[in-house]
Amino acid sequence: MNNAASPVGRIASVDALRGLAVAAMLLVNNPGDWGHVYPALLHAAWHGCTPADLIFPGFLFIVGVSAALSLSPRVALGAAPGPLCAAVLARGLRIIALGLLLQALAWALLHRPEFRVMGVLQRIGLCFIVAGCVAVRWREAWQWALLLALLVGYSALLRAGATLEKLGSLPQHVDTWVLGRTAYEWDATTGVAFDPEGVLSTLGALATTVFGLLCGGLLRRGDARALALTGALAALAGWVWSAWLPWNKQLWTPSFALWTGGLAAFALAAAHVGIDRLGQRPWGRAFGRNAIGAYAGAWVLSVLLAATGWGEWLYGVAFGPLGAWFGPQAQSLAFALAFVAAWAIVVRALDRRGWYWRV
């Protein structure tokens, strides 16, 4: 825990969007009953894009933006790139280690048959390492070139596979070869594995993060118009591209990366104008300043509630009347909102005391 004041030059709109993404993660990850969730709060079964599918790309986009805001000024001031990259690598590895620790907790307490290696924090850590080192060592023109190479190259890899369906796709084959039984989905009978945060699909997630890095440069220059235009053009390109390569979060297709990244950039431009320039309230900022801590704490709490049975009891007893009055979907939503509200109280209290948990 760090009780130091927040760094000089911190941008409220970035904290707010990061916080809203974390709050949305908690909302969709803790429905109380997975059988009665409103469709908008569920990820697309395969191809497509629901509101829930916008959350993780939005967070990775902000990871890239934050890398531009924190690292690029140091490079401009003449900081040595070696130590900066070493610091980026160390932090990224800590994020990955935390993700593995949380997976180990779930594996042990929930008696899961296999230990999962990949996950949300692991993907964040990997993307942060690459995007951070790119921010330190590569000029903006080369960053654009990298983004283009990721989009075109990954698209070519996907199209080189036999199918874009889960079974038989190139990412599924790579996950089977590399992850095996440690993947999110593992069929012991066939030996087939697949992970929505898998190996090859991380290329698409990295494209989202690099796009955030480039948009962070626009935000540094205070060019909200260029930021909004870039977001609109990226979203349009992703929409057009989806006719040939469908949106798919689990594959993190290039069209999905552009569509979600473009929407995130447009949201950042609007938040920058509204919050940073016009002084509107930065909703979600407390979550954003303790993002990893809130995510990790919520994970631990949800695992403990599931392992002890208290979650099922609380859902049935405290929220059961809502299900009887308004239906099971309302009951599920109320539970998820209460979970988010409880953590909102926690991060708000931490923010008031200036306590921030940084990995």
UniProtKB/TrEMBL annotation:
- What are the transmembrane regions? 54-72, 84-108, 120-138, 145-162, 199-219, 226-244, 256-275, 287-310, 330-350
Tell me which InterPro entries the record gives: HGSNAT_cat
| Key words, A-Z | Acyltransferase, Membrane, Transferase, Transmembrane, Transmembrane helix
Domain Heparan-alpha-glucosaminide N-acetyltransferase catalytic: start-end pairs: 10-152
Q: Does the keyword Metal-binding apply?
A: no
Instruction: Cite a single Pfam family from the UniProt record.
Output: HGSNAT_cat
What molecular functions are annotated in GO for this chain?
A: acyltransferase activity
Recorded hits in PANTHER family, A to Z, give: LD22376P
Q: What is this protein called?
A: Acyltransferase family protein
Q: Which organism is it from?
A: Pelomonas nitida
